[in-house]
Design goal:
The chain is of the alpha+beta class and about 325 residues long.
C-alpha cells in the first residue's frame, strides 16, 4: 500500500463520519493528499517510510466570511482526535491545530507557499519565477472530494506551463544541452580533461531530462526522482537508459568516443521529437540552432526577447 492508497483508505474509514459533524463547513471543503513528500508523488517505498509517512489526509478550506474561525478550530481538533493507527501504520502525535502536511489547511496559504499565488493566477513573469517543484507539489497526489470546487479549479490553472513559458524553458535547456554535450564534451576529451568531460556529461544529461519533461508537458520532479519519473513518460522515456550510461561510465579513449556518439544519437532523437511537435524550423543536427528556432515560436514579444536562458536562470 503506497501513501496515496493509505491516505484514501484512512479517509474512507474516518472522513465521512468526521465531516458529518461539520455539515455547515462541508460545502466549502476539499479533501485529498497532495503537496510535499514522496507519498504525494507516488514514489514512496519502504525506505522512504522512515519519516513523514503516516495515515492521514488533508482538509482544504477557503478563506470566506461565511466560515467561522471557531468552527475551523473545532474541525482541527476533531481531526487530531481521529484514530492513531490504521492498516498497520501509526500517525505521529499532532499539535492541537494539526500537522504540517495533513489536517486542516487554508487553500490560499497552501498555494501561496507552493507557487506564490493564492489562487493559481500567474503572470508570464511569475510563471518564469516559480520553482518547478512547487508547481508539481500543487498538482500532484489525489483529490478525494471537492465539495466547493475551488481547489480543483486552481489545480487546473496550474496543471502545466502556458505554451510560451514551455517554449522559453525548452529553448534554454536545448541550448545548454548543445553546449555541454555537442560542444564541450569532445573539447574536454581533446584537452585530456576527463574530469571536466564527466561534468559535461552530467550537464548534458541534466538538461536533456528537463527537455524530455518539457516535450511531455509534465513538470519535472526533484532530481532524486527524475530518472524514475522519466522512465514512466510516454515520449522519449527510452532515453533514460542511455542517459544513465553517460553518467556511470568513464572517459577513457574508447569509451569517450562511444559516449560522444551516444550524445549525438540522443540529440537526434530530441530533434526528431521537436520536429514532430512542430516546435522547430531548423533543418540540421545542431541543437543550438534548434534552441533559437524554438525561441522564435514564442508569441509574446517581451518573453521572446528575454535572454534565451531567461526561462531557466
Amino acid at each position: 500500500m503506497n501513501g496515496i492508497e493509505l491516505s484514501r483508505s484512512y479517509y474512507d474509514a474516518y472522513g465521512p463520519e468526521l465531516l458529518s459533524s461539520f455539515e455547515d463547513l462541508k460545502p466549502f471543503l476539499c479533501t485529498g493528499l497532495f503537496g510535499s513528500g514522496s507519498e504525494c508523488m507516488g514514489f514512496d517505498d519502504e525506505i522512504s517510510r522512515d519519516h513523514d509517512f503516516e495515515p492521514g489526509f488533508c482538509i482544504f478550506v477557503p478563506e470566506r466570511e461565511e466560515i467561522d474561525r471557531k468552527r475551523l478550530f473545532q474541525l482541527e481538533r476533531a481531526y487530531a482526535k481521529l484514530p492513531a493507527e490504521h492498516a498497520g501504520f501509526t500517525r505521529a502525535k499532532l499539535s492541537p491545530v494539526g500537522g504540517s502536511r495533513h489536517g486542516v489547511i487554508l487553500i490560499p496559504e497552501f498555494f501561496t507557499e507552493k507557487t506564490g499565488s493564492p489562487d493559481g493566477k500567474l503572470s508570464l513573469q511569475e510563471w518564469l519565477a516559480v520553482p518547478e517543484q512547487g508547481l508539481l507539489e500543487a498538482v500532484n497526489g489525489a483529490v478525494f472530494d471537492d465539495f466547493y470546487g475551488e481547489v480543483s479549479a486552481i489545480r487546473e490553472r496550474l496543471s502545466y506551463y502556458p505554451e510560451d513559458i514551455r517554449l522559453k524553458k525548452l529553448a534554454g535547456h536545448l541550448l545548454l544541452m548543445a553546449q555541454a554535450g555537442q560542444y564541450n564534451y569532445r573539447r574536454c576529451i581533446a584537452h585530456g580533461e576527463k574530469d571536466a568531460a564527466q561534468l559535461s556529461a552530467f550537464e548534458f544529461v541534466k538538461h536533456t531530462i528537463s527537455v524530455i519533461f518539457l516535450l511531455n508537458r509534465q513538470y519535472e520532479p526533484y532530481y532524486k526522482w527524475s530518472f524514475r519519473a522519466l522512465r514512466a513518460l510516454p515520449v522519449l522515456s527510452l532515453e533514460a537508459e542511455v542517459l544513465q550510461y553517460l553518467i556511470t561510465t568513464d572517459n577513457e579513449e574508447k569509451m569517450a568516443e562511444e559516449k560522444a556518439d551516444v550524445i549525438e544519437s540522443i540529440a537526434a532523437d530530441v530533434i526528431d521529437e521537436l520536429i514532430r511537435q512542430g516546435l522547430t524550423k531548423a533543418n540540421c543536427g545542431d541543437l543550438e540552432k534548434h534552441a533559437y528556432s524554438v525561441e522564435d515560436q514564442i508569441a509574446d514579444g517581451e518573453l521572446r526577447n528575454l535572454h534565451i536562458l531567461g526561462g531557466i536562470a
